Amino acid sequence: MSTRIRLQRHGKKGKPFFHIVVADQRAKRDGRFIEKLGTYNPNTNPATIDLDFERSVHWVSVGAQPTDTARAILSYRGVLMKEHLLRGVKKGALTQEQAEAKFEKWLEEKAGKIEKKKDELTKDAEKERAERLAAERKVSEERAAALTPQPEEEEAPAEETDTEEAAEATTEAPTEEVKEEAPAEEAPAEEAKEEAPAEEAKEEAPAEEAKEEAPAEGEEEKKD
């Protein structure tokens, strides 16, 4: 019977929670299993892994084939590294003490990487929180500034209306004077027009007298 190490899905929609189990290859994904090795919760950052280390090493050493996700989890917790060192001990490539020393060194390096990753995640979360608070503070300040009354800006239109009324008063005054004085200036012109025919009449009067006298001279000649 071929066995596989795989994940069984649990939890609710949108928040999955997995069990790490050893099951027959022919069984359904969420069906019967042989042994439960631990749990995997991807909803946290970093993901939470609870694993029975010794039983996981045993099943890998007897030939259980993990799926891709299960292999990544086992490698992350050092199960595959431990099984690799144990195979070296069986072959005589190194002693048990050397294998344990190497594994302890690997665990220390892995723990350092994990702590560094956690610190980076914490710093990123704090930075994101600070930026979000700054953005919210800016928005609140803009809203407060928009709601506060501004009396100086409200008085400005009143001053403009006063200046406009003064300008209209100054511009309208000369036009009224011009309208009133215009008939006074035109009066002499009318008098001149009225006097002009009188002078012409005076000038034309001698001409008429001359015409009247002209026949008188002719008559005298006839009489002579």
CATH class of one domain: Alpha Beta
- CATH H-level superfamily title of one domain: Ribosomal protein S16
CATH architecture of one domain: 2-Layer Sandwich
Placed side by side, the strands forming the largest sheet appear as 4-3-2-1-5
SSE topology string: EEEEHEHHHH
Mean pLDDT: 75
What class would the helix/strand composition place it in?
alpha+beta
The gyration radius over C-alpha positions equals 59 Å
Could you outline the blueprint of secondary structure elements for this entry?
Blueprint: E1 3-12, E2 15-24, E3 35-41, E4 48-51, H1 53-61, E5 65-66, H2 68-76, H3 79-91, H4 96-147, H5 151-223
Helix pairs in contact: 1-3, 3-4
Task: Tell me what the structure shows.
Mean pLDDT is 75; it is low at 172-224. The longest helix has 73 residues, at 151-223. Among the domains are: 3-93, S16 Ribosomal Protein, Chain: A, CATH 3.30.1320.10; 95-148. α1 packs across α3 and α3 (79-91) packs antiparallel against α4. It has helices spanning 53-61, 68-76, 79-91, 96-147, 151-223, and strands at 3-12, 15-24, 35-41, 48-51, 65-66. It has a 5-stranded mixed beta sheet. With 224 residues, the protein is α+β, with helices and mostly antiparallel strands. It has 5 helices and 5 strands.
Can you give keywords for this protein?
single chain, 224 residues, alpha+beta, S16 Ribosomal Protein, Chain: A, 5 helices, 70% helix, 15% strand
